[in-house]
Design a protein that fits this description.
By secondary structure, the protein is mainly alpha-helical. It is built from 11 helices and 3 strands; from the N terminus they run H-H-H-H-E-E-H-H-H-H-H-H-H-E.
């Protein structure tokens, strides 16, 4: 009887523990509730300060001297060629799935399936293949495609002479970037003329994304991947924890960049901008073709998001390795 009583009491305690709710202050929403109003207040103060400054003689003179964009080198091509439009779609598709798979690799406690490379044929190695989660296999596969895609983009960028549109060519890019930022904050946004030239803030953002953030993502990802041999001497100066500490903030940078990029595309002339990026329409066209092509691209990304699950990935992964549940 005593034993039964103790068993019942312990069962009740277990049930209470299972049903116990996490205190609200320990949930992520607690941070949002406190941080969001603070950010909104800071942004409101910044808007008021920017509007006040640009309304002063000093602010007006500053904007007159630095309108928000730097002059491009003579002969820089205008517009968006077909290869840039296609690469814009591929980059959109790849980066969304890379971020998703990378986040799952980081947060998933118990992977649903694992992949081990076939150590045969041309890719035979002395070391036994590393077993990894199926999401890590997807992440690394997409990374390789993304890096190849990026290299092709950079080659075409320099071969076509369009590199000057995304690389600062004079020091006045910095005061012009401040000017563009003030115009955004004052809610009197800088003139949109992406067909000819980006504003200075956009140039710096594209430069950082293409030539700093992307290489950092690739280099740190390579250091954390099974391809890296820890016996290499460089491993002493470039440890995996350092690469891991850089890789995650770079991912957050891409998320923030994509968010603001999409917001600006839709708020500075949606049809105009989407025609530049997704259709063959000429400059000044108000056609809906760009939006239609963007909608189709979005459907492809959503389909990729849905198919990026173990039940669908298994067949593709088995072409290059063995898929197991443990």
């Amino acid at each position: 009887m005593v034993t039964d009583t103790k068993t019942k009491a312990s069962t009740k305690k277990k049930k209470k523990k299972k049903g116990k709710r996490t205190p609200f202050r320990q949930t992520p929403w607690f941070t949002v509730v406190w941080v969001a109003p603070i950010l909104i207040a800071v942004l409101a103060i910044a808007v008021v300060a920017a509007r006040w400054f640009v309304g002063t003689p000093t602010g007006a003179e500053f904007l007159a001297n630095y309108p928000g964009h730097s002059e491009l080198p003579e002969g820089t091509p205008e517009g968006f060629p077909w290869w840039a439009q296609w690469q814009h779609f591929f980059n959109f598709f790849l980066i969304v799935l890379i971020i998703r798979s990378g986040w799952l690799v980081r947060t998933q406690r118990k992977p649903e399936a694992f992949w081990t490379r076939n150590n045969t044929g041309r890719f035979t190695t002395k070391r036994p293949p590393t077993k990894m989660s199926l999401y890590l296999w997807l992440h690394l596969t997409l990374d390789v495609l993304w890096v190849l895609h990026g290299l092709i983009f950079v080659i075409l960028l320099f071969a076509s002479g369009r590199w000057a549109r995304v690389v600062p060519t004079s020091w006045d890019i910095f005061p012009n970037a401040v000017s563009a930022g003030l115009q955004y904050l004052s809610l009197d946004w800088p003139a949109e003329m992406a067909w000819v030239n980006y504003n200075a803030l956009q140039v710096l953002a594209y430069f950082v994304t293409i030539f700093i953030a992307a290489p950092l993502a690739a280099i740190t990802g390579l250091r954390m991947s099974p391809v890296w041999n820890n016996d290499w001497k460089i491993s002493r100066f470039y440890p995996a924890p350092l690469a891991r500490a850089i890789h995650l903030p770079v991912m957050f940078y891409f998320v923030v960049f994509i968010f603001f990029h999409v917001v600006l595309v839709f708020t500075t002339g949606m049809r105009h901008n989407l025609n530049h990026m997704f259709s063959w329409m000429p400059e000044g066209s108000d056609s809906w073709w760009g939006f239609v092509m963007f909608a189709l691209a979005l459907l492809v990304v959503v389909a990729g998001w849905i198919l990026a699950r173990p039940i669908f990935m298994r067949s593709a992964a088995q072409l290059t390795g063995k898929v197991t549940s443990r």
